[in-house]
Write a structure and sequence with these properties.
Layout (H helix, E strand, L loop, with lengths): L4 E6 L2 E6 L10 H16 L5 E5 L11 H4 L10 H10 L5 E5 L2 E3 L1 H4 L6 E5 L3 E3 L13 H9 L1 H10 L3 E2 H6 L5 E3 L3 H13 L3 H34 L2 H13 L1
Parallel strand pairs: 2-3, 3-4, 4-6, 5-7, 6-9
Antiparallel strand pairs: 1-2, 7-8
Helix pairs in contact: 1-3, 3-9, 5-6, 5-9
Length: 247
């Protein structure tokens, strides 16, 4: 496991922390491997009842590291990204996220696979795929519309405009907004859940997810097929070149 993704276990909760704050926790393929390893470890350890995904109280995840991402030639089932997404969508234990600062791209779409999400009031969410010449990922073309309605999903995915924690709460993307100390708040909720009967929680989660499970997995792979084609296309190359020139 990379030191950019770390885990701690206490009181029935595994905290999986993104530790690349200098890059706003932008994900590399090595970090995806670290996240997958953490999910698998949480599944295997009986003492882990709940998992909390977090960054810091200042930053959650600014999406994919584009320089690393541009090295991709394919997104096969064995690629780090799809291994992570497949493991994520099949994860059986309660999964929480604590969001602060930017939640961009996969930093937002990963939340669709979480059971509870708490966010800082200053968090900013964004799905800028189209602006980068890309398409939705992580099953968001399906799951976002199911969660927030097609009209709002169209707006967020097609325009790529940023939206606030208040708007995310209004449309049901997240569960709670707090002012500061979001990781501590998420941990407190996770610890509370960990005291409840874990078998009943897992059964309830499975029942809630079951109608969408197969469709979500299919959407992930359908999106990946289009994503790679677009990633190698002229529109994406021009958009990313413009992004780096602005930065």
């Amino acid at each position: 496991m990379t030191d950019l993704v770390t885990t701690t276990v206490k009181d029935g909760v595994m905290v999986v922390s993104l530790n690349r704050v200098d890059k706003k926790n932008a994900l590399t393929q090595a970090m995806y491997d670290g996240l997958t390893a953490a999910l698998n470890a949480a599944s295997a350890q009986n003492e882990v009842k709940v998992l909390l995904l977090a960054g810091s109280n200042e930053v959650f995840c600014a999406g994919n590291d584009l320089e690393d991402f541009l090295t991709l030639k394919e997104l096969s089932q064995d690629s780090p990204i799809l291994r992570f997404l497949t493991t994520l969508v099949r994860f059986k234990k309660p999964l929480l996220a604590a969001v602060a600062g930017p939640a961009v791209g996969v930093g937002t779409t990963v939340l669709l696979h979480c059971d509870l999400v708490v966010a800082d009031s200053q968090s900013r969410f964004q799905l800028p795929f189209v602006a980068l010449g890309l398409c939705a990922e992580a099953g968001s073309s399906l799951l976002l519309a199911e969660r927030v309605g097609q009209a709002k999903a169209n707006e967020w995915l097609l325009t790529g405009k940023p939206f606030s924690a208040a708007e995310a709460l209004q449309y049901g993307l997240i569960n709670q907004v707090v002012d500061g100390q979001v990781v501590e708040t998420g941990l407190a909720i996770a610890k509370q859940l960990a005291t409840l009967p874990s078998g009943a929680m897992m059964a309830t989660k499975a029942l809630i997810r079951q109608p969408h499970q197969a469709k979500a997995e299919k959407a992930i792979f359908d999106e990946a097929e289009q994503f790679v084609k677009l990633l190698q296309g002229d529109e994406c190359k021009a958009a990313i070149k413009a992004f780096f020139s602005r930065r």
